[in-house]
Amino acid sequence: MEVDEPALPPAKRSAVPSLENPDRPTFGKPTYDGVIAGKVSGRKWKQPRKHRASALRASVKGTSFEERQREKEIKSAYRERMQELKETIRQNKVEKRKKREEAEKKKQENILRSGTKLQKITNPKTLKKIAKSKQRKQLKLVPDELVKNRK
Length: 151
Description:
Layout: E1 15-17, E2 25-27, H1 65-115, H2 124-132, H3 144-150
Antiparallel strand pairs: 1-2
Subcellular location: Chromosome; Nucleus, Nucleolus
Region (Disordered): 1-57, 89-151
InterPro entries: CCDC86
């Protein structure tokens, strides 16, 4: 089996003389009439390009300077408004948290005042005994004002 010379890429193909004009070379395999006449595709009816395909479309015009400025102002106003709203939300949350803490504190004081019996223990021996026993869980440190207000 004989092997023909391998098919080379288009750039490396050797020129074949044209059948009509031997001085004019033809590239690639000869077509039905044997003449490609210099066009790679072999289509004689195909016109060579005179301009780029990208030049067919009209370029899109950008927005004017005034429009860009107006859009910029709108965006900045939007951003400022968002910042203001976030700040008000944050302030509201802080106020609510403070109110909640105040109410919780007041509630604890009321519970200590009314719900439990408060007794001031001054004897250190009694404190030692209670600290060693199971009653130490019942001990609570209470500010002096609460004990004074009760009496």
